[in-house]
Design goal:
The protein has 357 residues and is α+β, with helices and mostly antiparallel strands. The protein has 2 domains: 168 residues, no CATH class; 168 residues, Porin (Beta Barrel). It is built from 6 helices and 16 strands. It has an 8-stranded antiparallel barrel. A 6-stranded mixed beta sheet has the order 1-2-6-5-4-3. A two-stranded antiparallel sheet has the order 14-15. A hairpin with a 7-residue loop joins strand 1 and strand 2. Helix 3 packs across helix 4.
Length: 357
């Protein structure tokens, strides 16, 4: 729907409805433009008359209008002939906006439909009308025909030209994203408790863990672990010492302050079994141990110091087997046969890196 409405300067002005979708798309940029406002110093005066739109918050419309035009929120004092005048009349959900621009001597009018966030929609529509008028300075910087109602000073006209140049031709800086997740490259000292082997036995250990972020989804984990355990056999007690290294590849996500992860890996090392000197089991056995594992856990916290907790479940491809004892009384001990299950808890220090979650 389109038509013509009179101008206070005498020339007829064409008005048209503005699609709501276009206004909503413009509204999505308002926050980014507010961020840019702090860096601009244009203080062009704009007079806003919303007496016929009593339901609207006039100070809010004024603020949003200046933000959309990338003007400072403070106006300077100037001559009445330099002031761009914006007025609006409302009829239910419809509003007619009129802009009188003294820098071009032109009056523009447009009807819009106000639904949700009426103040923002009205401010955006007015800003588009003002921008369209000021853009004439770029199209016709030196008009061939004298503009009788162009009453603004040259200083104000030049400033309006610069404002519209920034708004149209200079892209806005990208809006700041929500706080990015913290770097996931870290070093950690951890303690572990678990159960493994046949016969089943408890283990307790200490170790160092290094997490290395590969990209926003994947990370590598490397650890070196020293475990102690005690195994009860028919002949007596066997002390276990185990030194292993593990390497895993994990996929990670983010849930608030938690970064859960899960993946696969492998572990390899050596185990040392020694019989209690006070029991008939007195021999020592040494052998390699290790195999594949599944792991899952999470890091906790967003500061330089964070917590890490994870579970590891694996199966021994290399098993240590050895006889402890002598003769017919000797016992076969497969200290690292079958699987293992451990729980590790760590205190970690971030070492740097970046995350793009």
């Amino acid at each position: 729907m389109a038509g013509w409405s009179p101008s206070r300067h005498g020339a007829p002005i064409r008005w048209a409805r503005v699609p709501l979708t276009a206004l909503l798309l413009s509204a999505a940029t308002a926050e980014a433009q507010e961020l840019a406002t702090e860096t601009e110093d244009a203080s062009l005066p704009i007079e806003l008359d919303l007496d016929e739109c009593s339901d609207l918050d006039v100070p809010l419309v004024r603020r949003l209008l200046r933000i959309e035009l990338r003007l400072s929120l403070e106006e300077r004092d100037t001559r009445p002939e330099d002031i761009t005048q914006v007025s609006a009349s409302c009829d239910g959900s419809e509003a007619t906006i009129v802009v009188d621009d003294p820098t071009t001597g032109k009056t523009s009018s447009r009807r819009v439909r106000l639904v949700h966030a009426s103040e923002r929609l009205l401010a955006l529509a007015a800003a588009e009308l003002i921008s369209a008028s000021w853009a004439e300075h770029h199209v016709r910087p030196r008009p061939e025909v004298e503009r009788i109602d162009q009453t603004a000073s040259e200083e104000v006209t030049v400033e309006a030209t610069e404002v519209i140049r920034r708004r149209i031709f200079e892209p806005l800086p990208p809006p700041e994203r929500d706080a990015a997740p913290p770097p996931w490259t870290f070093g950690a000292l951890f303690g572990s408790v678990g159960v493994s082997g046949r016969p089943a036995h408890a283990t307790f250990g200490l170790g160092l863990l290094v997490g290395l972020e590969l990209n926003r989804f994947f990370a590598a984990l490397f650890d070196a672990t020293y475990d102690l355990g005690r195994i009860d056999t028919d002949l007596g007690t066997v002390q276990l010492r185990r030194i292993t290294a593990g390497l895993g590849l994990v996929v990670r996500g983010r849930v608030g302050m938690f970064v859960p992860y899960g993946g696969i890996g492998g572990r390899a090392g050596y185990a040392f079994l020694r019989g209690d000197p006070e029991s008939p089991v007195s021999r020592s056995v040494t052998g390699r141990v290790g195999g594949p594992f599944l792991t899952g856990g999470t890091t906790i916290g967003e500061g330089a110091i964070m917590g890490v907790a994870w579970i590891e479940a694996g199966w021994h491809s290399w098993s240590q087997r050895g006889y402890l004892g002598e003769g017919r009384d000797a016992t076969l001990l497969a200290a690292k046969d079958r699987g293992w299950l451990t729980l590790q808890v760590a205190v970690a220090v971030r070492l740097g890196g970046s995350d793009s979650h």
